[in-house]
Amino acid sequence: MRNSQVDLPYLPDDLWLNCLARVSRLYYPILSLVSKRFRSLVASLELYEIRTLLGNTENCLYVNLRFSSKPHTRWFTLCQRSTRSPNPNPNFNSRWFASCFRPHSVLTNHTMVSVPTHNLTSPTELTRNRIAIDSNIYMIGVLGDGAFSSRIFFMDCRSHTFHKTPSIQTAQKNPLIRVLDGKIYVVEGCNDPDYSNFIECLDPETQTWEHVPSPSADIRGRYVSASLVLDGKLYLFGDKNLVYKPKENKWDVVGLEIPLRWNPTDFVGAVVDNVIYAFGRRRMRVVWYDSKGRQWRYLKGLGKLPKLPKQCLCVRLVGYSGKIVVLWEKDVRGTDPEKKMIWCAEIALERRNGREVFGKIEWCDVVLTVPQSCSLLHFTTVTV
Fold it and tell me: Where are the coiled-coil regions (predicted)?
């Protein structure tokens, strides 16, 4: 009996969606280049609903860059860069759909690809102060007169469309935002005589705002310059260092659980499994904070990691599936002085003997080449 061939382009959409839902999201940018139909399927919210039903959600990396010649910032996401290989099966349709569907293809390296965003109709500029919850990246907008928007914008990383939350109850002059227990906390950073509106909280599920009790007059400071979420608590740093404990609904002065002689305004780091990892600017290495010994320790095992730059603004760290990912800028030497490379490294973490943490470099690559005038704004992890 003669074997019949399946004409892949004309399979029903439902079947394609079920196939795509089982493919890593790292390949979706490649698949979207196959045809307009694939581009539509990959951008379909139905695809992500199927992924959720299958339990096939995964963490994805997004980076936000500003190009001096463009009025708006641009988003990029990490994907796999593929290479074609000789086709060992001459009966296979020679049209190249994607590396994950082609037998014996070779996958090499990683790259950042531009994300086409949609329906951002507001004239606001989006600040560097951003956080991620599930598949959404939340950010505060800046109006044309320099004032902060009363709404929080968020990008749905499934469809790459922008949306707005309801207006905050009290306008903020210099807000900081953090996520804790799935809720968004907006903290006023300036000296505001009306301390009753010092902090508000948004529940993304119900889209409702509520006030959070303010710290008492005997412990609160004049300003807040940085914040950190650790072990289910919200830490605020300024002329006074405070911690909010939502389970107890109370404020305290920060104790010895936070690193001594640590300047959080220079913090370039991430929290993974309640351990703080940071960029050690003095020796340009990745460090972690030993809360028992109350000291910073070097993350060992990274001897092959390329040298990191001295400038904090050129380095970013994020938590990623129990690991850390380091992103940094580096000049293109010799060939093109007007360009620079963006490097990325994924590092697995292993605790040994209870007192040491070792890192294992799973991959390290140049993921993007950009003009020197380009600036790195934000680096985050979302779940889709």
Answer: none
List Cβ neighbours of 139 (8 Å cut-off, separation of 6 or more).
126, 127, 129, 130, 152, 153, 154, 155, 177
The residue among 28, 26, 32, 82 whose CA lies nearest residue 59 is: 26
pLDDT tens digits, 62-112: 999 988 867 678 899 998 765 444 444 444 333 333 333 333 333 347 899
Residues 244, 233: contact at Cβ < 8 Å?
Answer: yes
DSSP 316-380: EEEEETTEEEEEEEEE--SS-TTEEEEEEEEEEEEEETTTEEEEEEEEEEEEEEEETT-EEEEEE
User: Is a pLDDT exceeding 70 seen at residue 131?
Assistant: yes
Domain with CATH 2.120.10.80 in the chain: 117-258
Q: Kindly report the number of other CB atoms within 10 A of residue 219's CB atom.
A: 12
User: What is the distance between the alpha carbons of residues 169 and 228, in angstroms, rounded to a whole number?
Assistant: 23
CA geometry: angle at 337 spanning 336 and 340, to 5°? 85
What number of other Cβ atoms are within 10 A of residue 81's Cβ?
16
Residues 6+ apart with CB under 8 A from 96: 84, 102
Architecture per CATH, domain 117-258, reads as 6 Propeller (2.120)
- The span from the CA of 223 to the CA of 236, in Å, is 10
DSSP string, 283-331: TTEEEEEETTTTEEEE-BS-TTSPPPPS-GGGEEEEEETTEEEEEEEEE
| 151 vs 155: CA distance, rounded Å | 13
pTM value is 0.86
Amino acid letter, 91: N
Quick one: how far is CA 62 from the chain centroid? 5
> Is 29 exposed, middle or buried, given 0-12, 13-18 or 19+ CB atoms closer than 10 A?
buried
Lowest-confidence range among 6-15, 62-71, 258-267, 370-379?
258-267
What confidence tens digit (pLDDT) does each residue in 145-162 have?
Answer: 667 778 888 999 998 998
* Chain segment 257-305, per-residue pLDDT in tens: 676 555 555 567 899 999 999 987 666 889 998 888 888 889 999 999 9
Cβ atoms within 10 Å, residue 363: 11
